[in-house]
Amino acid sequence: MADDVIDFSDILDVVRLREECRAVAADPARNPLELRTALLGVLKQASSEGRKKVRDLLNADGGGLACARRLSWLQDQVICVLHDTISERLHQEAESIAVAAVGGYGRDTLAPGSDIDLLFLLPAKNNDAMRKAIEFLLYVLWDMGFKIGHATRTIEECIQLAKTDMTIRTAILESRYVCGAEALVTELEKRFDAEIVAGTGPEFVAAKLAERDLRHQKAGDTRYLVEPNVKEGKGGLRDLHTLFWIAKYYYRVRNAQELVARGVFSRHEWKVFQKSDDFLWAVRCHMHFLTGKAEERLSFDIQREIAESLGYHSRPGLSAVERFMKHYFLVAKDVGDLTRIFCAALEDEQAKEAPGLKRVISRFTKRVHKIPGTVDFVQDRGRITVANPDVFKRDPVNIIRLFHVADINGLEFHPDALKRVTRSLSLIGDQVRQNEEANRLFLSMLTSRRDPALMLRRMNEAGVLGRFIPDFGRIVSMMQFNMYHHYTVDEHLIRSVEALSEVDKGQAADIHPLANKLMPNVEEREALYVAVLLHDIAKGRQEDHSIAGARIARKLCPRFGLNQKQAELVVWLIEEHLLMSMTAQTRDLHDRKTITDFAERVQSMDRLRLLLILTICDIRAVGPGVWNGWKGQLLRTLYYETELLLTGGFSELSRKERARQSEEELFEALSDWSQKDRRVYSRLHYQPYLLSVPLEDQVRHAHFIREADQKGQALATTVRTHSFHAITEITVLAPDHPRLLSIIAGACAAAGANIADAQVFTTSDGRALDTILINREFPVDEDELRRAATIGRMIEDVLSGRKRLPEVIATRAKGKRRNKMFSIPPSVIISNGLSNKFTVVEVECLDRPGLLAEITAVLADLSLDIHSARITTFGEKVIDTFYVTDLLGAKITNENRQGNISARLKAVMAEQEDELRSGMPPGIIAPAPIPGRRLQAPPRRPKADA
Fold first, then answer.
1. So what's the pLDDT on residue 870?
2. Collapsing DSSP states into helix, strand and coil, what is residue 428?
């Protein structure tokens, strides 16, 4: 890497430091330990002051590489002064040792928290005094707080180890003289070049590229993770370092700029290399300075501060941190482009074999083959490449055609072809975008039965997708600053297509049985693929991205060759692409109004089928672990309930008649019980329970309640697992109480359980029968059942008063990282139009341990009866929906009361109240119900979903 002119004089006065160390060493009364302590004080202060000046210069000029080189220079001076002091005062033999920097330090770059990698070269004839000098130097550096990686070897040992160990070979490749016997470093470089490097270029290249691939795999194999590893991640600094290692080893260059003269990079590409390197170093140095350690992951909690340090400002539609991260991902993409270009040059270089038999063999094995149906492209060992250099210039549509031919022939891409694509992007203008053939080829790739996501990803990485669809180009590398989305917007869209392709090929039947069943009968397959690709294309704009995306789709669909009917369907799907997900996760699916409102928006079975499949693909593409079986079950329930309504299949029986029929079915199912028990337990439940709980579960609950009664248990719990839904069920029987839901929610939070759903019912004898569904944690049923039993005991302990909720929640939350980097203004929406019987209260805020317990406690304080609730988490944000009435079963219509509800909820969401209200009783066992008395107006608290 070419050195820029950097002024180091303001960082450290080397002459003064040397004089101070000599003065310290001049005292003959000091023994080696005392001398070490005295030198430590002088050097540590100089290093600390120098690093502070380096950080100030970084803040002033923003130069990442300059910062790394300043730190490297500062470290050099400390080591040189220390080495010279040792040789003058303690061990004159130190002059015969060479101190060399290796690793990143060897490249003359150093991050604030990086290890200091040193190679101590000994002459062939060495002694203990030399090793003692090295030991003294190392102890001082360790005492200064540096992390030192070191090796002490002779030149011969270095050469022998480099022959068998690629890591050592790479370290020696980067070695740089710092101080001491320079002749040793010079000799090592000569021997290394002659005995190791010569003739082993292909071997080194293969090893480094394999090492890179393994590193990418460990880091997630995508450069679009929203919390990227700046050093090791795909498109990070290590990728640039790999290029530099290969260039130095294979092309025998001393810095990357020489690759321009060798024809590997153009001048423009070299400038991109420099800018990428400088930007990544700036980010890394700021991260280390900010965190005070070698932090390499650009996590959410530091992204905002790094963006501020680098001078980013908010713009309409994108915050400062989102603009910074978009720049980061664009740089990571540039690094990928440079890697492809570099690899293409390597292949060309390696194709130029020496004369003789090797050349004959090479020509035979690397012979290109024609591809049927095209004269512009050829096949080279299973990879597509151009037949001649002017293929794209002669016909720019060939840029699109290249990917289409690769798709239909199942070919990988030759690096040279992708290099030429990257260098030809300016040819993709309006003429290509409006070309009928180009759009036909693109639609064919998008709807391919093979691997459409692979082609889209290759097109995106080469810059073609953003040029061909400019609106897509606006969201390339765009991140959303939240914990819900794991990828950039463009990567999310491509992964959505990938999920759709899986369903289309019948590969996801175990995950999406309903979608797999519906997909073969989908008539508008092309429209579905286009909608999935474009559903988030308008992210980052000031207006609603669904509305703006529909407008973009209306413009693009005719261009892609879709007819009017298909275009209108795509527009509708994009406009409503969040409808099914939000309805399933935040609305009571057993409330008839929920289904009728949803059905009015959908209107047809064709739309319902397509919307279900799009919704599944959208959720699955958000990130690992976001999709689970429970979300699938919610979507299936919504689909089947809506299907009944759209096809006229809803029962004409009244709710009262259907409830009576359900009660009779339960009575018949308990046929092996006594007549008395059958009558008692079949009449124990009210309409909401009888209409929403399957008969199988009703029978199971009857057995559970009777067993608890026989044992005289006021409190009882039972557990079971649902492996397909990835859900574990805990059923709680307890005396009813206004705060019961709040207490159970708090107990689950204290036990570390994430509630996925809850069915909460009141029995006719004044008890509550609550079924809590929590997200599964262990794959093995035995382990999960033990965990569920522990959570059940926690619920019993809290309900019985053996444990107090405030303490257990506080203990649980103590070690958890708070989401201080996110700000979500508390929102409360109160609606009487979403349900015929209930007032719907929807709250949205930042998540935290015990939040559900606090919110439900406030609702109880306000004399609201919770009939059902849905608790949904989207990363750091929760959207909780409660179906409530007053204690007389009426809706909340008074505006003043609605205002009070809103204010109280916002206060608790903003943490302006105590963690839990101090007035909460230690135990909530209610007095036993009066014998023979039946509650006239039971607090119907049927169902809470989370």
1. 81
2. coil
Nearest to 136, CA basis, from 47, 38, 37, 36: 36
Residue with tokens 């690397």: 366
In the chain the first and final C-alpha atoms are separated, in Å, by 55
CA 279 – CA 68 distance, rounded (Å): 12
CA distance 741 to 763: 15
Which phi and psi (to 5°) does residue 715 adopt? -120, 135
DSSP assignment letter at 225: B
Look at the pTM and tell me if it is higher than 0.85.
no
Higher pLDDT, 672 or 920: 672
Q: Which of 112, 42, 111 is nearest to 78 (CA)?
A: 42
Amino acid, res. 418: L
Looking at per-residue pLDDT, the higher value among 78 and 824 belongs to 78
As a whole number of angstroms, the distance between CA 468 and CA 425 comes to: 9
Q: How far is CA 192 from CA 74, 156, 186, in A?
A: 28, 10, 10
The token pair that represents 134 in the structure block: 């090295």
The span from the CA of 86 to the CA of 76, in Å, is: 15
**Chain center to CA of 522:** 32
Using alpha carbons, select from 67, 87, 86, 85 the residue that is nearest to residue 75: 67
- The neighbour count for residue 680, using CB atoms within 10 Å, is 17
Report how far residue 716's alpha carbon sits from residue 442's, in angstroms, rounded to the nearest whole number. 61
CA pair distance 725, 629, nearest whole angstrom: 4
Give the tens place of pLDDT for each residue, 120-139: 999 999 899 899 999 999 99
Task: Decide: 150 and 119 in contact? Cβ < 8 Å.
Answer: yes
